[in-house]
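Mods, move this if it's the wrong board.
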Amino acid sequence: MKIRYFDNAATTKVKEEVLEEMFPYFLEQYGNPSSMYFLGREAKRALEKARKRVSDLINCKPQEIYFTSCGSESDNTAIKGIAYKNKDIGKHIITSKIEHPAVLHTCQALEKDGFEVTYLNVDKYGFINLEELENSIKKDTILISIMFANNEIGTIEQIEEISKIAKNHNIIFHTDAVQACGNIDIDVEKLGIDMLSLSGHKLNAPKGVGALYVKEGIEFQKFMDGGHQEKNKRGGTENVAEIVGLGKASELAKNNLKQHQEHLKTLRDYYIKNIEEKLPDAKLNGPRENRLPGNANFSFPGINGEELLIHLDERGICASAGSACTTGTTNPSHVLVAIGLDKNLTKGALRVSFGDENTLEDVDFLVDSLVEIINKMKEKNN
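Not the wrong board. Structure tokens:
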């Protein structure tokens, strides 16, 4: 059975060019980058080359990039690092109700430690209200953390406008750009971003490596103690091979961005058009404009999303439910609840996220399968 993968928002396949560049750092150039001899110096040079490639992807200085293990660690480092560094100045943080759990759970942990967090509402498309953001700022607000693009419904937030509001109040602005990096052109200088989180496995690098951009001059408290790696901000021997992979993937993403975007938009728009024509009661979640190029999230009324995924899996189709349908959990997606969907629609949501290897023929197979499966499920339920 042929596997058709439509869950690139969850993880992406490592590109062959990325894997090829990583191989020598497992078998030949295996030195510790903190060592002074030749193998160590070669590993250190590889780290700095990767740092430059990642910095080029978002237009920052190489020294502003800190390597981490993933996007979640980057979010934790940014939010907790700023919170604890500035706790004597203020203890108020602003975020949104549709953030990734890496941000929401970090903020909730800080609330238990005496910090105050404001969770902004979003409209039916997932956009925060800039006026509500402005009105939420207090004298002791030290951080605003709003995601660049939503992982479930694809909403691209008004990052430049949010940044301006933060700057006007002398507040640090962090964005979780895990879904955006590699899919959207990001210029941290132009957008005025102070801190940005990204993850390797969302842009065709391996799992287990990420990065945090921190604008020069911004101080944050480290919470990973050990050696003096990463400018004394993250102790522990660097994962050289995977960092090399992240660097190569970043270079490929930057060089191929326009072609990548056009391909994903073609697939996304073709899919949306066909679903709306063949399943007219389906509801598109999120905006039609200002949306991630490869994201399409539909709710199918009267359909159980978990059951739908099982039927799709039987046909070799990999996708994702909009609900948190994990073992023992039937709670609806916090994102879909935040945009105001009723229970019937949150329960029957399906997220599709396209990648470079998907084709229009794959989309036809997906649509035909959905139409057949959903119609049979409806007949069974009636």
